Amino acid sequence: MAHQVPELFDPVKARRGDERARRQGFEPFLIDRVGEDLIERLAPVLRSFAHPLDFATPDFRFADALARSGKIAGNVTRLGEDAALTPTALPDMGENGFDLIASGMILHRINDLPGLLARFRRALRPDGMLIAAFPGGDTLVELRDVLVQAESEIRGAAGLRVFPMIDVRAAGQLLQRAGFALPVVDSERLTVRYDTPFALIRDLRAMGATALALNRAGQPPLSRTIIARAAQLYAEKFADPDKRIRATFEIIWVSGWSPHASQQQPLKPGSAKMRLADVLNPPEK
Q1: 10-residue block means of pLDDT along the chain (285 residues)?
Q2: What is the pTM of this model?
Q3: Domain count, the chain
Q4: What share of the chain is helix, strand, coil (3-state, %, to 5)?
Q5: Is residue 277 part of a domain?
Q6: Taking the CB of residue 285, how many other CB atoms lie within 10 A of it?
Q7: Which domain CATH number covers 164?
């Protein structure tokens, strides 16, 4: 029996949210910040890439960042968000076609992320690099807190209102499961301040980052009473002395390489020439 992937996200609704964001004016501040971080993270890499791919980064902002990085020796191939949200588009990456795959702020919206990472692995040439960034588990922790509390107070129970996110440990496990060599995972927390919770929600809508795309059959929408109570709680619990509220964005970065014989390999057990105990506790002279 084929493995059934949970359909947590509705690709049709996700595209609607993205289209609305474009109509109303896309907000790029977060993806632009992540793009600058991409340039910094590629700086220590002592090679250039002739066959890079930007996979589904909003507005292909990673492709633009790659062009500014000085690490690109060829044109950047671009696969749009439909390629990420529609499973039948994924095989278009082919096999061994790219020496770099970069993806920004989209992997958290993928139903079958393990399957996508495995496709990345097959699409990379030997010793090709994957680098990606996406929101992590502490993103919008304040908004999640007040929505749960407000809905629980008024309805007696709370539903899923904020995207579920992957944490650092799970991201590392997914890289290893997909067969990447030399996997590296880390995260950075950004704090953005707003005048009101409604200003935060406007930015989320303008980034196509609201929970519109979640599959929540039978779950009632938030009422005005719940939203008003959540805004009140936000101001009480997460406001600075100047009354501006805080919003946390955790950005998880993952990188790994398609295996190649030239890469560093772990030593075999028992092959060390010194005991660890001797290194940690050298004998006194």
Answers
A1: 64 80 89 97 95 94 96 92 61 80 92 91 96 94 95 88 84 95 95 96 88 68 93 97 97 94 64 56 58
A2: 0.86
A3: 1
A4: 45, 20, 35
A5: no
A6: 3
A7: 3.40.50.150
